[in-house]
Amino acid sequence: MTQEHIAVHPVPERLLNAPCPKPHISSLDDYRQLWQESVDNPDKFFGDRARELLTWFKPFQTVRHGSLDEGDVAWFLEGEINACYNAVDRHALKNPNKVAIIHEGDEPDQVRKITYGELLREVCRVANVLKNLGVRKGDNVIVYMPMIPETLVALLACARVGAVHSVVFAGFSAESLRDRVKDSSARVVLTSDEGRRGGKNIATKRIVDDALNDQRDLNVEHVVVFRRTGTPVPWVEDRDVWWHEETAKVRSFCPPEPMNAEDPLFLLYTSGSTGTPKGIQHSTGGYMLGAMLSLKYIFDYQENDVYACMADVGWITGHTYLTYGPLLNGATTVVFESTPTYPNPSRFWELIQKHKITQFYTAPTAIRALRRLGDQWLEGYDLSSLRVIGSVGEPINPEAWDWYNEKVGRNQCAVVDTYWQTETGSIIISPLPGATPTKPGSATLPFFGIKPLILDPTTGKEITAVDETGVLAIAQPWPSMARTVYNNHSRFLETYLKPYPGFYFTGDGASRDKDGYIWIRGRVDDVINVSGHRLSTAEIESALVQHQAVAEAAVIGGHDDLTGQCIHAFVSLKPNLDTADGLEKELTLQVRKIIGPFATPKRIYVVPDHPKTRSGKIMRRILRKIVNGEQDQLGDISTLADPSVVQVLIEKVHGSN
Ligand code: 6R9
User: Fold this and answer.
1) Does 1 reside within a domain?
2) Residue 522 falls within a domain, yes or no?
3) Atom 26 of ligand 1 has which residue's CA nearest to it?
4) Of 434, 432, 429, 435, whose CA–CA distance to 28 is shortest?
5) Which protein residue has the closest C-alpha to ligand 1 atom 3?
6) Are residues 267 and 373 in the same domain?
7) For residue 385, which of 10, 4, 14, 3 has the smallest C-alpha distance?
8) One domain for residues 478 and 535
9) What element of type H or E holds 37?
10) What is the reported pLDDT for 1?
11) In this structure, is residue 524 part of a structural domain?
């Protein structure tokens, strides 16, 4: 495929001239030179920046250690540092009255501003509460909370005492939460009575109770509950404590714990090819540098900016670009509790106008949904404060990119399509606002320290040909890369480092065009991306087969104009169960209960059998083609155990005409 027809958008003139602040990097040559330095001499490049941007309690001697071959990557070895001190204290000491967090509540008139000084005191109180509850350096703490400033406080308080936070997205079901609590052996869970979203209350505490109701193999001793709505909630004596009561008892200062740069800062569970989610573990020093540096350059953060990321704290974007990236830079970050369409589809634009937002970061699925609802929702809003608008989570189609650029950016903003993953810690491929001409649909060029390669999936050899698709790998370690999978280093090696020895394997397909721009083609493994949420097919299949009627399930990703991909499930039933009234509904509920509502299948087909090889392996490739209307391109199906099943499936999906 060639990209000749794709328009190239130069950096908007407006960004290079007053009154816009001068971009940190304002030409492609400057970017190229810095990038070259960063990959040729990472020790100097990252060593200098780690000293300049971060405040260390004890300096490091060694910048970089280990290799992708060995899987023992470490950065800033001897350095001692605290993430909370860097994100909060140093700004609070210099500039206590600067607003750190703007909370835009679910209702547009609920706005709360928290200064760095206030943030420091609240973080210290919660840190002291954690200590009183017995949390010590190195302990894992689960956070299951809605989009309120206290969630950021919870993360920072963990970091302050050296505990490892593990946020579970509050859309996950009790069962998913339970699995994560168990895997992490956490003794403390932080939550709220309820959440608020789109005018509805969400029963956060009740879900925590359900997750913990059978304590047999769990170690949870305490649940700290923040009062968000005031709705009465069940209480477990001796286990549950109120956030406001405990914080009122303790001092509003708590010394930050000096941590080794390689001590873990957090775990974040994510879906991979196999059934059980993995606890991706990030370091303290390297992660912080990645978050701080990328936010500064990729969003061209300047003092006095008001930065807004719409992601939930439950995902990696909410960690790096809602919490750590902005706060490490001393920025004002917006925490948005609601949805893009509540109370109406002007909500984002109203938010931008009200707070004079300068950087706005959201996902293609939201952009597509708002585009579909019509341009009238943008009319009359003043979006002129914006300089950089970003996209993340999945490939952005050129139509959505153009709309975002024209309607939201008014052709006067840099559009940054940022490619990265939970495992990469921070953005690894993206334009820089003042430097990189953009092409709709391409994440463009690598960030500092990132040396991307396109590999032939079968031979593992580098593909240098233009526009040829292969798998995306990274050739050398970078500071914010994940260090391991919690309690399962061999799984880390098997998934990321062994498939192509010497390289980090992303799991995504990609190609490079004649200008060296990278085009991400989507996952090459069994991961589905629905509205930017990562799900493994195996995880959904395992939820389906837990239903007593189901014999076998196969899940694939279909194309969807709105959500990017959507879930199609094919289930075969146990003998004598070929008619089952209401089964589809039951199975839908089953998936929602076991994983969470965001994993709801779009279609469930009850089928007599699956297309299988003679050795019994389900050929998901065939199901994928049928669902995506490519049933005329199935290729050779004669090797199937029963080729006749294919016609039955086509009729199931597309009807018999
Ligand atoms: C940050 C985040 C990672 C997967 C990744 C890829 C997809 C993310 C993208 C993109 C194309 C982009 N992805 N950003 N694909 N263009 N700009 O989303 O992390 O939840 O771990 O998902 O998302 O497939 O491998 P995570």
Assistant:
1) no
2) no
3) 421
4) 435
5) 421
6) yes
7) 14
8) no
9) helix 28-40
10) 43
11) no
Domain end, chosen from 446, 480, 511, is at 511
pTM of the model: 0.93
Q: What is the 389 CA–ligand 1 centroid distance (Å)?
A: 17
How far apart are the CA of 393 and the centre of ligand 1, in A? 4
Q: What is the pLDDT of residues 402-448, one digit of tens each?
A: 999 999 999 999 999 999 999 999 999 999 999 999 999 999 999 99
Full residue range of the structural domain in which residue 141 is found: 13-511
Nearest to 302 by CA among 513, 575, 24: 24
Predicted local distance difference test score (pLDDT) of residue 214: 82
- If you take atom 18 of ligand 1, which residue's CA is the nearest one? 393
At 638, which CATH number? 3.30.300.30
**ipTM (interface predicted TM):** 1.00
* Segment 512-537, tens digit of pLDDT: 999 999 999 988 888 999 998 989 88
Do residues 542 and 497 share a domain? no
Cβ of 311 below 6 Å from ligand 1: no
State whether 505 and 536 are in the same domain.
no
When divided into structural domains, the chain yields a total of 2
- Distance in Å from the first CA to the final CA of the chain: 33
Q: Which atom of ligand 1 is nearest to the CA of 533?
A: 20
Does 435 share its domain with 290?
Answer: yes
- Tell me the residue type at 19: P
Q: Phi and psi for 255 in degrees, rounded to 5? A: -65, 140
Say how far apart CA 36 and CA 629 lie, in whole Å.
44
Q: Does any ligand 1 atom lie closer than 6 A to the CB of residue 394? A: yes
248-271 residue pLDDT tens: 999 999 999 999 999 999 999 998
Q: Are residues 506 and 538 in the same domain?
A: no
Specify whether 103 is located in the same domain as 239.
yes
Q: What is the tens place of the pLDDT at every residue in 238-248?
A: 999 999 999 99
Indicate if 305 and 276 belong to the same structural domain: yes
Residue among 324, 368, 419 whose CB has most ligand 1 atoms within 8 A, to mutate = 419
Task: Find the 510 Cα to ligand 1 centroid distance in Å.
Answer: 12
**pLDDT surpasses 80 at 162:** yes
Point out the ligand 1 atom lying closest to the alpha carbon of residue 423. 21
8 A C-beta contact, residue 371 and residue 364? no
